[in-house]
Design brief:
Elements lengths: L6 E6 L10 H9 L2 H12 L5 H10 L6 H8 L8 H11 L2 E9 H10 L6 E9 L5 E4 L14 H7 L5 E7 L5 H4 L4 E4 L1 H9 L5 E2 L3 H12 L8 H13 L1
Parallel strand pairs: 1-2, 1-5, 2-3, 5-6, 6-7
Antiparallel strand pairs: 3-4
Length: 242
């Protein structure tokens, strides 16, 4: 088999994966009501409310939003130190890379532009502003059959990959659990790692994108590269059900 003919599709979470902190959570803890924000986040983790409900509640606590203050806040947001190198690696190898986030385009685009990465393809929720500086969340990528997440990352994985592709998912949180199950190779840390352990899902642990780059570099040179059987079954299940 010609190893150069393999098609690798890379899907990467943003908050806590590309960035060191969860920007969405930090944003509302900084500009909103800390006590309410923490309580609602706990309810979301406990699956008492879904992502859309959480974001709407969090947005309701922010009044007279100041963009200049927010830009100063974003200056303190750091990327994984090896992420830019990872992007360069993917691009040099011809691997497609997409960012999937249950957060908001507003801060994602600002951070990526600052780092010279605004060319990356991003699928996320949207944030607009009212006349009085209030925040208005919009959710263009919901799924009627799954209300857990506001942005259905699973659908993006399925829409941008096919049977001949090798799919990779890199994440750290609750909203990465579902989409990662449909990928052949999973890179996990924090909550995603714990969920993989609990559900006995095969994964590669990572600390930084250096670990990811090294492992994918090894995988691409393997003569025989096997897809994860459970991921194939889950993809087939979705396609059969339509």
């Amino acid at each position: 088999m010609n190893l150069n003919n393999r098609s690798f599709k890379i899907f990467v979470d943003f908050d806590g994966t590309i960035t060191r902190k969860d920007v969405g959570e930090e944003m509302f803890l900084h500009f909103g009501d800390v006590e309410k924000a923490n309580a609602w986040i706990d309810e979301w983790i406990g699956q008492k409310i879904n992502s859309m409900e959480l974001w709407k509640l969090l947005c309701s606590t922010v009044k007279n939003f100041n963009e200049d203050e927010f830009d100063l806040f974003l200056n303190g947001i750091e990327l994984d130190p090896a992420f830019k190198e990872f992007v360069g690696f993917c691009e040099s190898e011809g691997f497609e890379i997409r960012v999937l986030s249950d957060g908001f385009d507003y801060y994602i685009q600002k951070v990526l532009k600052r780092e010279g990465l605004e060319h990356l393809e991003v699928y996320s929720n949207k944030l607009t502003f009212g006349a009085e500086g209030n925040l208005i969340p919009e959710f263009p990528f919901t799924d009627e059959e799954c209300s857990r997440c506001a942005n259905c990352k699973r659908n993006h994985v399925l829409n941008f990959s096919g049977e001949d592709d090798y799919t990779f998912y890199i994440g750290d949180g609750y909203t990465d659990v579902c989409p990662s199950q449909f990928c052949d190779f999973i890179f996990a840390k924090n909550t995603l790692l714990r969920q993989c352990e609990i559900n006995r899902v095969t994964y590669f642990p990572y600390s930084t994108f250096n670990d990811v780059t090294k492992k994918i570099s090894e995988l691409k040179d393997k003569r025989r590269l096997r897809k994860r059987h459970q991921a194939e079954l889950k993809r087939r299940e979705v396609f059969i059900s339509g």
